[in-house]
Design brief:
The chain is mainly β. 4% of the residues lie in helices and 45% in strands. It has a six-stranded antiparallel β-sheet, with no helix packed on it. A three-stranded antiparallel β-sheet has the order 10-9-12, with no helix packed on it. The protein has a two-stranded antiparallel sheet with strand order 2-5. The chain is globular, with a radius of gyration of 14 Å. The protein binds manganese (II) ion. Manganese (II) ion binds next to strand 6 and strand 12. The site of manganese (II) ion (MN) has 6 residues, from strand 6 and strand 12.
């Protein structure tokens, strides 16, 4: 891919059309598992990020992010943004509003693991505005 300066472990997969409405910019999704725990490889082009969202569950649930390539951001509401590099691990508790995505000048890839739980569902919220995103350093 032209301009892609990272070397991902898993194939990038297809353009993430199914969730495109919840992303700013282009992402790619490769669903790695078909049963048990849902594990996906997600790649973000530079500047791409998902909307603020919440992984809900009545017990258990949440999400684990394993950064594998490039450089990205994770931010939980009311907390400082966390820079993600290959090897970074983020444990997102169920119920916490957050977003994740690439840095402005880098591709980024993470593995996303849906932590099993009861009554799990994702709630997609407002986009991360250019103003919010542009302040990240
Ligand atoms: Mn998430």
């Amino acid at each position: 891919m032209s301009g892609m300066d990272i070397d991902p472990i898993f194939p990038r997969g297809e353009k993430n059309e199914a969730y495109a409405e919840y992303f700013t910019g282009q992402s790619y999704l490769n669903t790695l598992t078909t049963e048990g725990v849902a594990v996906s490889n997600v790649t973000f082009e530079p500047g791409c990020r998902n909307n603020w969202h919440i992984h809900h569950a009545s017990s258990g649930g949440g999400q684990i992010l394993l950064a594998t390539a490039g450089s990205g951001w994770y931010q939980a509401e009311g907390e400082d943004p966390v820079s993600l590099e290959p090897g970074s691990v983020v444990q997102v508790p169920a119920g916490r509003k957050h977003w994740h995505g690439a840095k402005a000048d880098s591709w980024f890839t993470h593995i996303a693991i849906a932590v099993p739980g009861e009554d799990t569902r994702n709630e997609w919220l407002e986009p991360v505005t250019d103003e919010q995103y542009g302040k990240l350093k």
